[in-house]
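job 3f2a | input accepted
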Amino acid sequence: MIAMLHGGRVAGYYFFFILSCITGLISCTGSNNNIQVKKFRIGFSQCTGDIKWRRATLEGVKRELSFHPGTELIYKNAEDNSALQVKQIKELGAQNIDILLVSPNEAEPLTSVIEEVYNKGIPVVIIDRKINSDMYTAFVGADNVEIGRMAGNYVSNLLRPNSSVIEIIGLKGSTPSIERRDGFAESLRANPRIKLKAQVYGNWLKDKSKEELSRIKDSLSPTDIVFAQNDPMALGAYEVYKNMGMEKTARFIGVDALAGPGGGIDMVSEKKLKATLLNPTGGEEAIQIAFKILNKEQFNKENTLSTVVIDSTNVRIMKLQTDKINTQQKDIENQQEILLRQQKVYENQNMVINIFIGALLLVLTLTAVSIYALWNNRKITRRLSVQNHEILNQRNQLIEMTARAKEATDAKFNFFTNISHEFRTPLTLILGPVEDCLYSQKLHFTLKPNLSLVHKNTMRLLRLINQLMDYRKIEESRMKLRVSENDLVAFVSEITDAFQVMAKQKSVLFTVNAKMKSLPLWFDVNMLDKVLFNLLSNAFKFTTGNGGVINVVIEKTNDNSMALIRVEDSGVGMHPEETDHAFDLFYQGSTTNSKGTGLGLSLSRELVNLHHGKITLRSEKWKGTTFDVYLPLGKEHFEESDFTSSGEIRS
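job 3f2a | predicted structure (651 res):
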């Protein structure tokens, strides 16, 4: 055994050595490749993602994040719903984000929830749209008042005196709508010769602007300029006028100037719009500011993005520049994908090399361990052979001793059974003449008490012998049921009648309560007789007179599956430790002078178990005891050999 432990210890040392080598090797090879970069989690709540300008904002955010590998972006689209955006911002605040980017749908409904996040210590960067508070970390976006003012100035330079203008405003309550409207109105006030003919709300959507203009189509002509606060609404106005055949009578101005198909620059180039004002998305700038905040660098709280008017004079150069930028961006993205693939290949190759070296070292170590183990096992085998020989000798001795013990036990039980029979025969012979004398009319009254005492103790001894023999039969599995169908109510009443005299003698109130007139039940009458006799004997033994109560209840359980016989008394009761052992063979309580053999309750439980039932006990010291005997209704639970043709007569 010592050698085996020593061999296992040495093998463990070898294994620990190889594990340390592999770990060190992987650490060394990986340390040069993996630069520790702090990982951040950024939450981005955008008022909507369904229009081109908002999609461009998200693309700008993702583009800039490509320069910060490992950063996690959690994006939420509020779908132009302020209540939904409030809920989404609360969810982001609970997701352990390091910073929140938010483009509010409306200023007033979003102010309180953004202040709540800010007060938690989470930095907040507002993009494009503001809130009615200065409780944010930074703002990134265009000066919307200036955009409105520049649009008004451009319109003033285009129009002759007494010209008319229609303004299509974005979403009511959003700060860009309010500020662009104010800037546009300020510029037009400086030029009273231009008349603001109508204002409609397009909610930033092309279809909504078309719907609102269609409502006032009778007043659309004549109109010189339609100014829309973004390009999609301007395109909607153009399409309404085109459907009416008036697209050449008015000029259309938008805001955003997005590049690419469907963008404002293409609309100007295609002469659908007279001009568009650049409204930078601010996605890249917002991420740049966010990382300055996260890295504790200096930053400006207000970050205003520049704007410019794009019309036929500069649209070509702007289109060329944006197309070139988009091409370069695609090249950068392709190169990043190639780099990522190369890095993945490198990591896989590096891992294969590490695994190969580790496997080689492992093979060498296992070879050494195997050689040592082979040598050590030969030594251990020799020792085990000697030990096995000793164990076999000990096992044979144990088998021999067990056989002898079994013979002695069998002899003891045989003697026990024989002596029980020897006691039972003379007791039966004594009982007959005693009963004859006791019931004889010629018996002198002075002898009757003594004969009654002899009769009582003879019956007690005979009952004890019968219980001992029954328990022996149960141990040897020779106790067989003789089940028949009987009326449980009549059966219990007949047994309890035998205790009425004792109840009067002890001044105990003894009652029997049956919840029904009869209750058919399959049971062995002799066995159940012994169970009830034991329970009632115990109840009378431990219940004193002058106010003592013993009650027997016969009923069905709530689910009508079992019959219940309850024997309850108001006697001395038991301590918890006594109730735990009450059904143990030969157990006797320590707090009463009325000691028995400790056999009755144990035998009763075994007899009830033979009926596939159960017996339970509830007791509290000085508050009485209750025994519940549960017996299944029906006869499906019995074997065919358990039945008799009719009930037996108890002897």
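job 3f2a | Residues 141-282+300-318 form a domain with the Rossmann fold fold (CATH 3.40.50.2300).
job 3f2a | closed
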